[in-house]
C-alpha cells in the first residue's frame, strides 16, 4: 500500500475551554488536492497552522512521507503555504519574494534564477518580477504568493483561501487553471475555502470541517448528491436546498408523502421510513417548472424571479402555503415574466434527500 504524502492522525487542539479540533484524521496522496471546506470558526486555519508547524497539537500526529514532523520546526518541514492576505515582503520585488525560500535553503544563484523564471512564466507574472508588492494588482500579488509557495516544489502545499481577495474574473480563471497547475507539482495539497463552488471546482476530494470535526470526506459529486447531514446539504447549494418536515406513509403497496397539497410517491427504499418523521430535501435544480400542466406536476404560484449568475431563481408558493425554490436557465427566465402568476412544478422522487429531524443525519439515499 502506498504511503500517503500527508497523514493527519487524530489531531486535537484546544484553546482554553474550547476544543477547536477534535480527533481529526485525513490522508492526502502526492498530486492530490483535498479542499477543506466549512463555515467560519470550524477550525480550518488552525488545522493549517498545525501542519505548517506554527502551532502544536495537544494530541495526535502529523506525518509527511510516513515520518512524524511534530518535533520539526516550520522551516524543517517540507511544507509551502500561501495565504489569503498574500503575506508578501513589502520591501522586496516579486522576484525576491518568490526566491526567498530558495535562498533560505542555500540554492545557487543560477538555479534560483532558473526556478523563479520557470514558475513565473507558468503563472504569467514574468513581466512584473521587478515590481514591489505595492505596484502589483491583487491578481499579481496572489500569483506571486502562490509562486513563492510552489517554487521549492514542497511535498505538502497549504493554500489558505488564496482567491478570496482577488476579483471575480481572476477567481473564475484560477478555478480553471489551478487543478492543472497543482497536479503538475506532485505536492499533497490542502486548499481551505468557505466557497462551496470553489470546493467543487478544485477538489479531487472535499473534507467538510464543522465544529472541529470532519463530518464528510468524499469526491465532490458525492458531497452534493449524498450529503452526510442536513447542514452539509445547506452548505453546498445556491440557492439553498428546500427542506420540509413530513411523515411518509405506506399506501397501496408503496410509500407516499403528502407534500405541496398532493400525494407524491417515494422510491422503494423509503418504505422503511413509513410512519416516521423526516426532513425531506429538494434541490432547486431538481424542480421542473412549466407554464402548462404536465403529468406529476402540482399547481403553484410564482411570486418572483431573481437572476443568479447563469441561472435564475424562481420563488414559488405551493397550495399548502410552503415556499419552494426552483432554478431555470437564464435564457428561459423571461418566459415566466416577473412573477405573480400560476405555474406548475414537478419534482422527481428519486432526487429527494431524507434526513433525521433530530440528528440531521441523511437517511436516504442509502448508498454512500
From TrEMBL:
The entry's keywords: ATP-binding, Nucleotide-binding, Transport
Source organism (scientific name): Benzoatithermus flavus
Gene3D superfamilies given in the database record: 2.40.50.100, P-loop containing nucleotide triphosphate hydrolases (3.40.50.300)
Molecular-function GO term, any one: ATP binding
Record-stated family: Belongs to the ABC transporter superfamily.
UniProt xrefs under InterPro entries: AAA+_ATPase (IPR003593), ABC_transporter-like_ATP-bd (IPR003439), ABC_transpr_MalK/UgpC-like (IPR047641), Mo/tungstate-bd_C_term_dom (IPR008995), P-loop_NTPase (IPR027417)
Name recorded for this polypeptide: ABC transporter ATP-binding protein
ABC transporter domain boundaries: 6-236
